[in-house]
Amino acid sequence: MPVYLVGESGVHESAAAPSIHIGLINNMPDAALKATERQFLSLLDAAADGIEVHLSLYALPGVPRSEMAKSHLDRFYSGIENVWDRHLDGLIVTGTEPKTQNLRDEPYWEILAKVIDWAGHHTHSTVWSCLAAHAAVLHLDGVGRRRLAEKRFGVFECDRAAHHPLTAGVPAHLRMPHSRWNDLPESALTDCGYRILTRSRDGGVDAFAKPRKSLFVFFQGHPEYQANTLLLEYRRDIGRYLRCERDTYPPMPEGYFDQCTAELFAAFQVRCLSHRRVELLADFPAAEAEKNISKTWHAASTRLYANWLARLQAQQERQAKKRVRRKYVQRARTVGLGAPQPMAEAQ
Fold first, then answer.
1. Residues ≥6 apart with Cβ < 8 Å to 164
2. How far are the Cα atoms of 6, 104, 168 from residue 58, in angstroms, in the given order?
3. Closest-CA residue to 161 (of 112, 101, 219, 205)
4. 0.70 exceeded by pTM
5. In angstroms, rounded to a whole number, what is the distance separating the alpha carbons of residues 80 and 59?
6. pLDDT, tens digit, for every residue of 246-289?
């Protein structure tokens, strides 16, 4: 089944079959805005496996935007005010680049906190990605993130840490991309009732969940990333170094390049350190690197999201049955039949 993008009405004109409705609140910076759309569309499409998914895009105010990005949001996104009166089967909230160490000081904090509260009562399940995961646990339980000594950047070996419906069919050992400067302590999460789903010895907690009225699912990693996403982030960080926007040359992503590609970028680093000029970015060997990059996390990521979609569908069907029964009870009482009695089991 395909994934349909729908407008503000939340209805796709060709929708006839039962479908689940998901919102994506895309907070990524301008440079990654469209790429993030494509990443989640691709992942949901791969995971749908017979489930028809309708995806609505929402924009959070307070995230700085260029005029070009604003134009794109005006064409394809709904304002967050359009979500308050809706019920969504599922919601995905992305992170963004933080401007402050304390998330409560971010200009979008108040509206994001409102989204967190709303999602707990108006979705069957919500996925919080990266910085959004950090914001959600801070708002819900006061668990603060901690600054890492260096960026956690690369593809990390992870272990499945729990038998959970979301990890059903996920390999015991998997790989997952991470790209972040901050971390959540596992002990603080477990003390507050969060269940760790996957973890990495080198990368820390990967995925975790907390059952509420809506099941909240948190990813510090990025199962949605495409094969070249880390490569493009590495190029961006090198560009910042060459433009003197950062003091140190960025380290290569861990566990991502093969030896030949790593040697290629080591030689490029020598050139950049010797002659720090932004013009060198034109020689960034992206094409050569992409030939040797594989999406080693694809199968595990698809299974995680397939399990999530299956849960949404099951919850939707369960709610539909409850509505039918309520209508039947009300109709029976109207005509004086009383509430229906359960059938006796066969002897």
1. 195, 197, 209
2. 11, 21, 30
3. 205
4. yes
5. 6
6. 999 999 999 999 999 999 999 999 999 999 999 999 999 999 99
Number of H helices, E strands in the chain: 9, 11
CA distance 33 to 30: 5
Cα 124 to Cα 309: distance, rounded to the nearest angstrom: 10
Q: Where are the domains of the chain?
A: 3-226+295-322, 229-290
Q: Which of 217, 224, 231, 222 is nearest to 200 (CA)?
A: 222
Supply the angle between the helices 229-242 and 259-274 in degrees, to the nearest 10: 10
Helix crossing, 67-76 with 30-48: angle to 10°? 30
Concatenating the DSSP letter of every residue in 144-197 gives --EEEEEEEEEEEEEEE----GGGTT--SEEEEEEEEEEE--HHHHHHTT-EEE
Residues labelled as active-site residues: 130, 222, 224
CB atoms within 10 A of CB 112: 26
Tokens of 166: 């979301």
Residue in 314, 119, 312, 80 with CA at minimum distance from that of residue 216? 119
3-state SS class at 272: helix
Domain boundaries 3-226+295-322, CATH class: alpha beta
Q: Phi and psi dihedrals of 215, rounded to 5?
A: -70, 120
Q: Residues 235-246: what's their mean pLDDT?
A: 97
